[in-house]
Amino acid sequence: MFENLSDRLGGVFDRLTKQGALSEDDVRTALREVRVALLEADVSLPVARNFIKAVEKKATGAAVTKSVTPGQQVVKIVHDELIAVLKGDDEEPGTLRIDNAPAPILMVGLQGSGKTTTTAKLAKRLKERDRKKVLMASLDVNRPAAMEQLEILGKQIGVDTLPIVKGEDPVAIAKRAKTQASLGGYDVYMLDTAGRLHIDQDLIAQAAAVRDTVSPRETLLVVDGLTGQDAVNVAEEFDDKIGVSGVVLTRMDGDGRGGAALSMRAVTGKPIKFVGLGEKMDALETFEPDRVAGRILG
Ligand code: GDP
């Protein structure tokens, strides 16, 4: 499959060391390999370019070129830079602003991204790790099956769902969830908004109306981590139209290399809070920049 970046750079530097000290050109040759590795990991071209520029500045210093292990030095610089971009100046990954009970969390994303599954996984995490009392409500009025899916997951994980009332619109459901959360002493209520296959006016207008009704403490965008550049486009659009406080990348258990995480962070500036690692209710983890960096490097 993918050639490991360290091996690949090792090869380049093996050839170079025979010629004596490394020149800046030699480092550039190595960085071309890094660029290929990034593109193979599905990092978008402009993001890969900027990234290489940043690394080049650091890697052309005397400490690297005169080092006895220049290949390893370059790999380390690349690794550190990846973590710096992935982490940004975010608060601790996985942190949610859910003080002031009941705190609303709005879940948004395209249909099939894993939104409903992630809503339930996160509810389970909040219940078990943070000892929060959580209420979930589905606003997907056009897809009764999606509403039932959340109800079934709720029963499975022991988290309450708002009873389904036929014919109610999403804003009315959101209001009912808010009332129920206050009266019932819930710490958090999670609103699973409708998903569509594409972003359209209706979807955005509906999510915006719900946002204006509950003023969410967190608006989490769920995106399929295997969709690369598409995931980034989706995030930009949702952020522009609705405002997103954090991202959950799903399907990180797939065989993608995780480049979407780097592009996502570099382009949108939004913190990646969690990653989905499977279909099971426990398969949600705090986003860890160093793990993803290792994966991107191969
Ligand atoms: P929604 O339409 O966005 O609400 O998507 P669903 O939550 O219904 O998920 C669609 C499918 O993706 C389901 O079969 C989920 O089990 C699956 N899924 C969700 N998250 C993950 C993940 O992190 N990894 C894997 N492998 N499958 C996932």
Automatic annotation (TrEMBL):
It catalyses: GTP + H2O = GDP + phosphate + H(+). Part of the signal recognition particle protein translocation system, which is composed of SRP and FtsY. SRP is a ribonucleoprotein composed of Ffh and a 4.5S RNA molecule. Its EC number is 3.6.5.4. Its main location: membrane. Composed of three domains: the N-terminal N domain, which is responsible for interactions with the ribosome, the central G domain, which binds GTP, and the C-terminal M domain, which binds the RNA and the signal sequence of the RNC. One of its GO terms (biological process) is SRP-dependent cotranslational protein targeting to membrane. It is a peripheral membrane protein. It is an enzyme of class 3 (hydrolase). Belongs to the GTP-binding SRP family. SRP54 subfamily. Involved in targeting and insertion of nascent membrane proteins into the cytoplasmic membrane. Binds to the hydrophobic signal sequence of the ribosome-nascent chain (RNC) as it emerges from the ribosomes. The SRP-RNC complex is then targeted to the cytoplasmic membrane where it interacts with the SRP receptor FtsY. Interaction with FtsY leads to the transfer of the RNC complex to the Sec translocase for insertion into the membrane, the hydrolysis of GTP by both Ffh and FtsY, and the dissociation of the SRP-FtsY complex into the individual components. Coiled coil: none annotated. It is found in: Cell inner membrane; Cytoplasm. This is Signal recognition particle protein. Keywords: Cytoplasm, GTP-binding, Hydrolase, Nucleotide-binding, Ribonucleoprotein, RNA-binding, Signal recognition particle. GO terms for molecular function: 7S RNA binding; GTP binding; GTPase activity. One of its GO terms (cellular component) is plasma membrane. Residues 271-284 form the SRP54-type proteins GTP-binding domain. GTP binds at residues 109-116, 192-196, 250-253.
